[in-house]
Amino acid sequence: MTLRLPFATALSAIVLTLAPAAQAADYPSRPITLIVPFAAGGPTDVVARTLGAELSKELGQPIVVENRTGAGGTLAAAYVANAEPDGYTYLIHHNGMATATALYSNLKFDPLKSYAYVGEVVDVPMTLLGRKNLPPANMAEFIEYARANADKINLANAGPGAVSQLCGSLLQQALGVKFTTIPYQGTGPAMAALLGEQVDVLCDQTTQTIPHIAAGNVKFYGVTTQERISKLPDAPTLEEQGLKGFEVKVWHGIYAPAGTPPAAVSRFNSALKTALKSPAFTGKMADLGAEIVSEDRQTPESLQKWVKSEIDKWTPVLKAEGMNVN
Ligand code: MLT
Q1: More confident of the two residues 23 and 36
Q2: What is the CATH number of domain 32-124+249-321?
Q3: What is the DSSP secondary-structure string of 207-253?
Q4: CA-to-CA distance for 227 and 233, rounded, in angstroms?
Q5: Chaperone: present as a keyword of the record (predicted)?
Q6: For the domain 125-241, what is the CATH superfamily, name and number?
Q7: Whose CA is closest to atom 9 on ligand 1?
Q8: Distance (Å) from CA 26 to ligand 1 centroid
């Protein structure tokens, strides 16, 4: 007995020491879930599913995309923050990761503490759209119409924390108007409402809007980036049409729960870097106006720094606007 106990202890110490290495070599050995904080069919979902297909080839396991909607993306962010940190649950999220702290006072996650960062993915411009039969034909007419009819205009968005909400709020602030806001679980359903002319205005990412702009299904008033974008070279920015300093650019990053084994994060990150170069991903993103981030931004360190800098950028703006929702 006295001889067997130390042997058992030594054996379990060896097993424990070997366990992480064995896990790293086997990882991933089963499907991985990629959580999308907004509705299926919308712009975040498009990026997630296109990327998921490439990641799956790289990792040799299915990437199961799961849409967990609600509260402007904060429910999904909380879900992943509190998920098992075993390398099998990841989150793709955008600017909402950095704006949520200013908007909500009861978050169940901390963007700076709850995650193991994986890396950034794409930057996406936004576009300002009206329903097809909204009277204004261009931005100059839209500005005039919005000021004269603000109380009759319905603005669709995906709730506080969504970039459609951020863009729509900045737009109202720039025009000095207040529209009626209609929140959806994502801009996928918000776009369906715009196409059905149940709402008047939507600010949304090119990853969803370009096909509708090309088909002439909507009124298109301009892009929200500081510079014109190569995919829509004739489309003026909102800034050049009178909204001085107006800029909203969407960035997407990937996160795992804090405590996820570094070997798993590193393996996922190397698959991400390969996926971001794949012709299927780069081709589709180019068609939809999205820009793959440079290699130095495809890292955990870069995403961590970026989230912090975006929190510092947006918190004073949102607090000054009194945009806290609870
Ligand atoms: C979505 O994927 O539905 C959008 O990213 C929501 C948003 O406007 O943030």
Answers
A1: 36
A2: 3.40.190.150
A3: HHHHHHHHTT-EEEEEESSSS--TTSTTSPBTGGGT-TT---EEEEE
A4: 10
A5: no
A6: Periplasmic binding protein-like II (3.40.190.10)
A7: 162
A8: 35
